[in-house]
Amino acid sequence: MIAIRPISDLRNKFTDIENTVNTGEPVFLTKNGYGSMVVMSIDAYSRMNQNVEQALDEADAYAEATAERMTHEEVFGKLRRRVNG
To answer: Cα–Cα distances in Å, from 55 out to 11, 18, 47, 60?
Structure first.
């Protein structure tokens, strides 16, 4: 179940929020009824970003191994052709 709490709970009910994020679920915090931030455990954050870090490491290794460089127009043009067929 999605946990949505007022931001004041971060100060007043920290233990409750900590217990929720320790289950692996994020807690969405609101301020004046609007979304303000998300709190999650370090493990959940690491899992979420693991593929991004791996892809960046692969891109760095590729950049070191080759002299090929592309402009952002070339990169996004290739992506658009792949997505649009």
So the answer is: 36, 30, 14, 9
The pTM score is 0.62
Closest CA to 29 of 54, 11, 5, 55: 5
Handedness of CA 26, 30, 34, 38 (dihedral sign): negative
- Estimate to the nearest angstrom the gap between the alpha carbon of 70 and the chain centroid: 26
Residue range 64-73, pLDDT digits in tens: 999 989 999 9
Is 46:53 a contact under the CB 8 Å cutoff? no
| Tokens encoding 12 | 């007043």
